[in-house]
Amino acid sequence: MPITPQPGIMQIALYKGGQSTLPGHPDVLKLSSNESPWGPSPEVGPALAQAAQTLNRYPSTDHAALRAAIAEVYGLDAERVICGVGSDEVLQFAAQCYAGPGDEVIYTEHGFAMYPIFANAVGAAPVKVAERERRVDVDAILAACTERTALVFVTNPGNPTGTTLPEAELVRLAEGLPERALLIVDGAYDEFAAERDVGLRLAERDNVLATRTFSKLFGLGGLRIGWGYGPAAVIEVLNRVRQPFNLSQVQLAAAEAAVRDQAFAREVQAETLVQRARLTEGLQALGIACDESEANFVLARFADEAEAGACDEALREVGIIVRRVTGYGFPEALRMTVGRPEEVDRLLSALSRFKGAA
Ligand SMILES: *Cc1c(COP(=O)(O)O)cnc(C)c1O
């Protein structure tokens, strides 16, 4: 018998991140990974320097200080917060603890590419459910549930759609799921939505886990910190598979400083909404369709795949990288991260030249 990976592993295609360089362009504008153009809070630098003083010491295993800060800021029970290497790690814990061979893991048509990877990694079957007009369809999810459904992943706001479901719809989903299924509300873009903290409120139920991240609004994608909030019983289970030292003291210190600087977070949030409105209006004025986004990116829809491809090429020629989202079911669209005012200007003028030349 040759050395053989576990069932499901070979179904996983390697994840492709957003490109960050373009040969020959010194001044690349990267709008492909929904990173914050504003960077992290100014409080993060000093916190990192301080943490660097004690790198010979192992970090805290229980993340008590960071969990307390999160609980204080969001009005939560610190005992029900779990921190991970990005929210990705918390999502992975959930798959590892609650799904396995013979189980089904539901995700939606335009949902995050990591969900089927997490399902395959534990030998469960990923089940993709159709969305309706780029919006999660609760009835379709409920219809797809079986006694084998272990997990249901929903992104709210969606990536790359930028759309949300009203809280009542998510409540209806949680209430309608089979008894053994855990609903995961991935709130990576929650801070940019009109209705905030929906996942955290849902996580007061015994079958909902909410996840949040420091990678987007807080500008710390490079450090890898995220967290989850859920019923005590679920968090207790997830902590069993979490490595005791999964987060370094550098990560813990940066995240705590970032979450405590709510003034900075609110500024970034407000400015993102202003620039998002400018980008949306600019696209629409150029005849490029897009939904009202509730995230820090806009999904620009072109006439067809050929036009989206040509636009992507034209942007690259002037040093701008956006994201093709063919793998998310949108061959005709490009996902564009909301940048600083001058970056939005640069993107819109490049798009205008593209449209003018077409
Ligand atoms: C960016 C993103 C995340 C965040 O991942 P981290 O591991 O916290 O960096 C989670 N879910 C979705 C849908 C995302 O787009």
UniProtKB/TrEMBL annotation:
<dbReference type="InterPro" id="IPR015424">
    <property type="entry name" value="PyrdxlP-dep_Trfase"/>
</dbReference>
<dbReference type="GO" id="GO:0030170">
    <property type="term" value="F:pyridoxal phosphate binding"/>
</dbReference>
<keyword id="KW-0028">Amino-acid biosynthesis</keyword>
<dbReference type="GO" id="GO:0004400">
    <property type="term" value="F:histidinol-phosphate transaminase activity"/>
</dbReference>
<keyword id="KW-0663">Pyridoxal phosphate</keyword>
<keyword id="KW-0808">Transferase</keyword>
<dbReference type="Pfam" id="PF00155">
    <property type="entry name" value="Aminotran_1_2"/>
</dbReference>
<dbReference type="InterPro" id="IPR015421">
    <property type="entry name" value="PyrdxlP-dep_Trfase_major"/>
</dbReference>
<dbReference type="InterPro" id="IPR050106">
    <property type="entry name" value="HistidinolP_aminotransfase"/>
</dbReference>
<comment type="similarity">
    <text>Belongs to the class-II pyridoxal-phosphate-dependent aminotransferase family. Histidinol-phosphate aminotransferase subfamily.</text>
</comment>
<dbReference type="InterPro" id="IPR004839">
    <property type="entry name" value="Aminotransferase_I/II_large"/>
</dbReference>
<comment type="pathway">
    <text>Amino-acid biosynthesis; L-histidine biosynthesis; L-histidine from 5-phospho-alpha-D-ribose 1-diphosphate: step 7/9.</text>
</comment>
<comment type="subunit">
    <text>Homodimer.</text>
</comment>
<feature type="modified residue" description="N6-(pyridoxal phosphate)lysine">
    <location>
        <position position="216"/>
    </location>
</feature>
<feature type="domain" description="Aminotransferase class I/classII large">
    <location>
        <begin position="27"/>
        <end position="351"/>
    </location>
</feature>
<dbReference type="InterPro" id="IPR015422">
    <property type="entry name" value="PyrdxlP-dep_Trfase_small"/>
</dbReference>
<keyword id="KW-0368">Histidine biosynthesis</keyword>
<dbReference type="InterPro" id="IPR005861">
    <property type="entry name" value="HisP_aminotrans"/>
</dbReference>
<keyword id="KW-0032">Aminotransferase</keyword>
<protein>
    <recommendedName>
        <fullName>Histidinol-phosphate aminotransferase</fullName>
        <ecNumber>2.6.1.9</ecNumber>
    </recommendedName>
</protein>
<dbReference type="GO" id="GO:0000105">
    <property type="term" value="P:L-histidine biosynthetic process"/>
</dbReference>
